[in-house]
Amino acid sequence: MSRFAYVNGRFVRHGEAVVPIEDRGYQLADGVYEVWAVFDGKLADAEGHFARLWRSLDALRIAHPMSQASLTMVLREAVRRNKVKEGLCYLQITRGVAKRDHAFPNPAVPPAIVVTAKSLDRSAAEAKAAKGASVISVPENRWGRCDIKSIGLLPNVLAKQAARERGALEAWFVDDMGLVTEGASSNAWIIDAEGALRTRDTNANILRGVTRSTLLEVIRETGLPFSEKPFTIAEAQAAKEAFITGAGSLVTPITQIDGVKLGDGQPGPVAIGLRRSYMERARLKAV
Ligand code: PDD
């Protein structure tokens, strides 16, 4: 099936889509990105991802290339042209194309935009999630502004590769205090020995996950105990359950951490229930 990408103002065949070699994203990772889950051909958690996109751009002083309404049209068109019913939509905005220089181009150049969309086999993903997954821990070695959804992802890439090489799905970063910050491309959660849901607070150096926020709405409604008290790997290994959240993983149960099985090594009932509830809510609200 033909795929299409949106590149700086027009849709082109995916295989022919190119960006100039002096795009500052390519040379300097000077840009930001967002990933939307696509449910029934619609964008999940749309508002939350846009809010974070504008925050990330403002933090880096990159101009907004277009209004939210226009960008929504472009994203929807990418989803439509690629015939994506279940999948992901990716947006990247860089500071633009200019002769290489570390400082911002002066005068400023227009930001550069790329949008792609791809289908996922949702039933295969469900079957995988139902089995649970493993994580490994890695030292936190990222910059101090992980709240910005920057395309500078080298530490995340290396962490994820280390996970792959050890047969795990995800890597959890652990900071100098021995506390888990988040995953290479997801937020990290446990259900502790007392039954409280715990994930790192957003004042810490983590990405404020949109899936995390939507799941918090679900958790508040269910009345499950919740706290933003950070946790260590040892606490996570002794936890009743663990899971990760993100636009790609949605809510995925974790059954093993650094080779140690959690409980009986099966996905926990709360994580499984939260995956279902998250998807129901996100599907209903997708636009
Ligand atoms: N990653 N933390 C990190 C470091 C992430 O890269 C992501 C998402 C998350 C979860 O955020 P959200 O719930 O808003 O997707 C947390 C995307 C999916 C990616 O890089 O592909």
Overview of the molecule:
The structure is a single chain. With 287 residues, this protein is α+β, with helices and mostly antiparallel strands. The chain has two domains: 4-120, Aminotransferase class 4, branched-chain amino acid transferase, N-terminal domain (D-amino Acid Aminotransferase, Chain A, domain 1, 2-Layer Sandwich); 125-285, D-amino Acid Aminotransferase, Chain A, domain 2 (Alpha-Beta Barrel). Helices cover 31% and strands 27% of the residues. It contains eight helices and 15 strands. The chain has helices spanning 24-28, 46-59, 68-81, 122-131, 154-165, 210-222, 233-237, 269-285, and strands at residues 4-7, 10-13, 31-39, 42-43, 87-94, 112-119, 133-139, 170-174, 180-183, 187-191, 197-199, 226-227, 241-246, 250-257, 260-261. The strands form two sheets. Strands 7, 8, 9, 10, 11, 12, 13, 14 and 15 form a nine-stranded mixed beta sheet that branches. A six-stranded antiparallel beta sheet has the order 2-1-6-5-3-4. β7, α5 and β8 (170-174) form a beta-alpha-beta unit. The mean pLDDT is 97. The chain binds N-(5'-phosphopyridoxyl)-D-alanine (PDD). N-(5'-phosphopyridoxyl)-D-alanine binds next to α6 and β13. The site of N-(5'-phosphopyridoxyl)-D-alanine has 15 residues, from α6 and β13.
The biggest sheet, with number of strands, parallel, antiparallel or mixed sense and barrel status, is: 9 strands, mixed
- Contiguous uncertain segments of 5+ residues: none
Small-molecule binders here are:
N-(5'-phosphopyridoxyl)-D-alanine
CATH class of the largest domain: Alpha Beta
**What does the average pLDDT come to?**
97
The beta-strand count equals: 15
Distance between the termini: 25 Å
Order of helices and strands: EEHEEHHEEHEHEEEEHEHEEEH
**Overall 3D form:** globular
Class based on secondary structure composition and strand pairing: alpha+beta
The tally of structural domains comes to: 2
How large, in whole angstroms, is the Cα Rg? Answer: 19 Å
State the CATH architecture of the largest domain. Answer: Alpha-Beta Barrel
Helix content: 25-40%
Q: Identify the CATH homologous superfamily of the largest domain.
A: D-amino Acid Aminotransferase, subunit A, domain 2
Count every helix, treating DSSP H or I runs of 4 or more residues as helices.
Answer: 8
Strand content: 25-35%
- CATH fold annotation of the largest domain: D-amino Acid Aminotransferase, Chain A, domain 2
